[in-house]
Amino acid sequence: MSWASVDLKGKWYYVLYPRPVVVVSARYGDSESALAASWCMPVSLNPPLVAVSIAPTRYTYNLIINSGEFAINILDYKYYREVSYLGTVSGRSVSNKIEKAGLTRVQAKKIKAPVIGEATAVLECKLHSKLAAGDHVIIVGEVVEVYARKPLQNIPDIKSYKPLLQVAGLTYTTCKDETVKA
Ligand SMILES: Cc1cc2nc3c(=O)[nH]c(=O)nc-3n(C[C@H](O)[C@H](O)[C@H](O)COP(=O)(O)O)c2cc1C
């Protein structure tokens, strides 16, 4: 089968999908917000660093830069509606965005940011560095605390864990257990 060219002015990045979706939460003073982010990846083992690419137009971006802290929350597939709310409504225009999404706001352990009570896992981060990348900024966080519920306590237990994966826009999928070991 032959390749077809993909338009670089369009959604070329969908060749890198489906992607896990995380929720990035932050607080600065009395302001807080949380957004959906699928452009997220671990980038260093020692020190433990994670990167998320966030557009500087996002309200959460300003909270991260001003506070120097943020949390990455991993939510199950069943929360796709709640995550879509966080990914389409700005904390600039609503207060208590996490509760308005239908999720529970819980205080983080080592940082001032809120975390999501329903999360399967949480990574609490201190801002390590940032790198301008076109219309986004790569935010690198040093992970200072991680906690997880059962399916993510060791290697992911695909039999009981249904990760939230973005196919495109607000269309999502999850994993079916097709595990193989090389
Ligand atoms: C599934 C999904 C994934 C998203 N991924 C990203 C992302 O990786 N980076 C980003 O800057 N925005 C991403 N967005 C958009 C933000 O989540 C969205 O603009 C959000 O409303 C910003 O909220 P805030 O203004 O309260 O920070 C995504 C949206 C959705 C629905």
Strand arrangement in the largest pleated sheet: 3-2-6-9-10-5-4
Topology-level CATH name = Pnp Oxidase, Chain A
Taken together, the total number of domains comes to 1
Ligands (ions, cofactors included) = flavin mononucleotide
Model regions low in confidence, pLDDT < 50 over at least 5 residues: none
Strand content: 35-45%
The biggest sheet amounts to: 7 strands, antiparallel
Q: What is the rounded distance between the termini?
A: 27 Å
CATH class: Mainly Beta
* Dominant shape: globular
Q: Label the CATH architecture.
A: Roll
* DSSP summary, beta strand count: 12
- Secondary structure class reads mainly beta
Report the mean per-residue pLDDT as an integer.
97
Characterization of the model:
- The protein is mainly beta.
- The chain has a single domain (17-173), classed as Pnp Oxidase, Chain A.
- It contains 3 helices and 12 strands.
- Strand 2 and strand 3 (31-37) form a beta hairpin.
- The protein is globular.
- The two termini are 27 Å apart.
- The structure holds flavin mononucleotide.
- Residues 21, 33, 35-39, 53-55, 58-60, 84, 87-92, 136, 166, 170 line the site of flavin mononucleotide.
Keywords:
182 residues, mainly beta, Pnp Oxidase, Chain A, 7-stranded antiparallel sheet, 3-stranded antiparallel sheet, 3 helices, binds flavin mononucleotide
